[in-house]
Specification:
The chain has 442 residues and is of the alpha/beta class. The chain contains 18 helices and 17 strands. It folds into 2 domains: 106 residues, Urease, subunit C, domain 1; 296 residues, Metal-dependent hydrolases (TIM Barrel). Helix 2 packs across helix 18. The protein binds zinc ion.
């Protein structure tokens, strides 16, 4: 297949009248359309206004999709313990699968082709199956919680790690290696030392298994960790083995100088979630500073109850604007930086090589965008449009691993109408889980 249009191959390479040739799951060639048309005369051609690498969501919660709008106007710990944990506790296996599907649908419809997905404690296998069926690329993990947790989510440490091991055996490398595993402690507040150390030991047993957790998102959280351990959160995570090149820490809003040095020294990845940080009033992550230190920073939407969309274009825009206003520097966090965070940096977070740009021999994860819009007229700078003007709704074509998942704006891999209908029929029953969650709140 030849995909033609304005090709944004990476943050520095825009090819007008360009094309991407896809062969199986790989990109065969990228260049000028007329040259490639001559080289591949028999290939079917599709034209899109802009072609870009599939975007990478470096921190998401697909299974929270049913909770969109249930927890507006609250701060993190209240948001989590009064709304989100009771919701996760209430979901049956079938509801968990529908929730995950809803999240993955929104991702592929709006240009996210790879997600680093923090699932829930229970029924994680249903989300793995959902991801496989829909065709998204992802690094998924069952959540670990063995303290400060509502009863329905509280697990015995060894049993939780044993279930994680079973899921690794079943799903790490599954679905043509589109799906991989991350051991996923919720955060240090809800995980014992044994749980965190056990997560490191388990990840070390398997090639390519990552560790994904939340860190230093909120001041109440870091105070709780300091009371528990006597240490700053990032130092504590380092102490128990949860730093390094295979570790993804979501947020890192509240870090001091020594913690930032530690993140840089250990090659730990950070995922920035600007909309979530703003909506929960968590604070502003020092993204410009992290990038200057050489820390790899990706971009994520976090969960629907704290965003409330999974639109990656909105996240790029918010990410840039937030850094500009925080540093009072209009030059800070330009479009190219946000585009890199949402593509190549995200690919490093997810741990897939040859992902996050449109280059010869790289993975065929490609998104096609419509710009026949008042909002995109005139189109002086395609990269500026992607970051500051485009919406997820502009996506009309999504390809993952050479498979077309969205065509003419419609999902082709599953019955999207049926999933939306099933999701809207679910009646969340938070009340019966609220008391136990409230007792667990620090
Ligand atoms: Zn999160």
């Amino acid at each position: 297949m030849i995909l033609s249009g304005t090709v944004i191959a990476d943050s520095e390479t825009v090819i007008e009248n360009g094309a991407v040739v896809v062969d199986g799951s790989r990109i065969d060639a990228v260049g000028r359309r007329d040259d490639l048309r001559d080289r591949y005369p028999d290939r079917e051609e599709r034209h899109y206004d802009i072609l870009l690498p599939g975007l990478v969501g470096g921190h998401l919660h697909s299974v929270q999709s049913l909770g969109r709008g249930i927890a507006d106007d609250s701060e993190l710990l209240e948001w989590l313990f009064e709304y989100v944990l009771p919701m996760e506790a209430s979901l049956s296996p079938e509801e968990m699968e529908i929730a995950a599907k809803l999240g993955y649908l929104e991702m592929i419809e709006s240009g996210t082709t790879t997600c680093v997905d923090h699932l829930s404690v229970n029924h994680a296998e249903r989300a793995f199956e959902a991801a496989g069926e829909i065709g998204i690329r992802g690094v998924l993990g069952k959540v670990l919680m063995d303290q400060r947790s509502p009863d329905a989510l509280l697990e015995d440490t060894d049993e939780a790690l044993a279930e994680s091991r079973e899921l690794i055996e079943e799903y790490h490398g599954a679905f043509d290696d589109r799906i991989r595993y991350a051991v996923t402690p919720r955060f240090a507040v809800s995980c014992s030392e044994a749980c965190l150390r056990g997560a490191r030991e388990l990840a070390d047993e398997y090639d390519g298994v990552r560790i994904h957790t939340h860190a230093s998102e909120n001041r109440g959280e870091i105070e709780t960790v300091e009371e528990d351990t006597g240490m700053r959160n990032i130092h504590w995570l380092d102490e128990v083995g949860l730093t390094g090149e295979d570790v993804v820490l979501a947020h890192c809003v509240w870090t001091d100088e020594s913690e930032r040095e530690l993140l840089a020294e250990t090659g730990t990845h950070v995922t920035h979630c600007p909309s979530s940080n703003m909506k929960l009033a968590s604070g502003v992550a020092p993204v410009v500073d992290y990038i200057e230190r050489g820390i790899n920073v990706a971009l994520g939407n976090d969960g629907p109850p704290c965003n409330n969309t999974l639109d990656p274009f909105t996240e790029m825009r918010q990410g840039s604007l937030l850094q500009k206003v925080d540093t009072l520097d209009p030059v800070a966090a330009p479009a190219a930086t946000l585009f890199e965070m949402a593509t190549i940096n995200g690919a490093k977070v997810a741990g897939f090589d040859r992902l996050g740009a449109l280059h010869e021999g790289w993975r065929a994860d490609v998104v096609g965008l419509d710009t026949d819009l008042t909002r995109a007229t005139p189109l002086h700078d395609p990269l500026s449009h992607l970051v500051f003007g485009a919406h997820g709704d502009d996506v009309v074509f999504t390809m993952v691993d050479g498979n077309v998942l969205v065509d003419d704006g419609e999902v082709t891999s599953v019955d999207a109408d049926a999933i939306r209908e099933q999701a809207s029929e679910i009646d969340l029953s938070l009340e019966e889980y609220r008391e136990s969650a409230a007792e667990a709140q620090p």
